[in-house]
Specification:
CATH architecture of the largest domain: 3-Layer(aba) Sandwich
CATH class of the largest domain: Alpha Beta
Largest sheet: 7 strands, mixed
Number of helices: 7
Order of helices and strands: HHEEHEEEHEEEEHEEEEHH
Low-confidence stretches: none
Strand content: 15-25%
Shape: globular
Mean pLDDT: 90
Strand order of the largest sheet: 1-3-13-12-10-7-8
Number of domains: 2
Structural class: alpha+beta
Radius of gyration: 18 Å
């Protein structure tokens, strides 16, 4: 959901001449193998609600050598399930601190469709960080920040489009001078672990091979339930979103921007647009016609 985050990707792809298909959440749940013929899969906007079947479908696609470009925030947050017709979607939210019902009983966590545990994907055995490298860290209302370059020498800043940015340079702006990072956003597990002492995260280990090429920081942003006191950071951690490149040990490659407004910004910001073009080129996806 959120039309602005969704529609600007379509406009950008059309403007630059990329061919693409639109696959809905329902499509992926009904046919988890639908991704297997594609060079790359783009997860866009506010991709918050995922079924276990969809999660496994993307996992299988990546393990077979696929590539994912995730331009979304609050990604894979709540688990959903569908009935046999695919017309009824069920979601159970537990915990007032994360947008769920404050008075929901533990027994209400379980779905009537598949009788499995509901609420957060990360507590149902389907954590986003394990599949796509980032996990939601919180939200920030209407305040939108930009990214700052962390690794200017990374190949994604160079080929085929040379992006002349130095370490610390800002990029990722919109036509209103707002930044690409706002509303809700995602970070690496290692960043989340630095920001909280929540015992629920104890013992979790970040997968190998994740590389941060840019990030966004803010003192004012709210952290989700992982934070101490439902909103306070520990250790001075200020990172709220990260752009990562990850060659997964299990197979597949992931590029993730960790924010809902990426596509909106990408449509207007030449540096962010060039970066995404470089990513698609690296994933063997080229425009078929320019300005079609």
């Amino acid at each position: 959901h959120l039309l602005r985050g969704e529609r600007f990707l379509h406009l950008w792809l059309d403007k630059l001449g990329y061919e693409y298909d639109v696959i809905t959440d329902r499509d992926l749940d009904r046919n988890p193998e639908v991704l297997k013929e594609y060079k790359a899969v783009l997860v866009n906007g506010h991709s918050e609600y995922w079924s276990a079947r969809a999660y496994d479908g993307l996992d299988d696609y990546l393990k077979a050598g696929g590539a994912a470009v995730v331009m979304s925030g609050n990604t894979m947050f709540w688990r959903v399930s569908f009935d046999e017709t695919g017309e009824v979607m069920e979601c159970r939210k537990f915990g007032g601190g994360i947008g769920g019902r404050k008075l929901a009983k533990v027994g209400e966590l379980y779905h009537s469709h598949d009788f499995k545990r509901g609420s957060l994907m990360r507590f149902c055995g389907y954590p986003a960080w394990k599949l796509i490298g980032l996990e939601c860290i919180g939200w920030g209302g209407g305040n939108f920040a930009n990214y700052q370059v962390d690794a200017p020498d990374h190949f994604l800043f160079d080929t085929p489009n040379r992006i002349n940015l130095k370490r610390g340079d800002p990029f990722g702006f919109t036509n209103t001078n707002k930044g690409a990072v706002g509303h809700e956003y995602d970070v690496r597990l290692s960043t989340l672990l630095r920001a909280t002492k929540n015992p629920a995260l104890k013992g979790l280990v970040e997968p190998e091979g994740i590389f941060t090429i840019a990030s966004s920081r803010s003192e004012r942003r709210v952290l989700d339930f992982n934070a101490e006191g439902h909103g306070k950071r520990v250790g001075g951690e200020t990172t709220i979103a990260e752009i990562i490149y990850w060659e997964r040990p299990e197979g597949g490659r992931v590029f993730h921007t960790g924010s809902i407004a990426t596509a909106w910004s990408m449509y207007y910001d030449r540096n962010l647009s060039a970066l995404i073009q470089n990513v698609l080129h690296h994933f063997r996806v080229e425009p078929v016609s320019y300005g079609k």
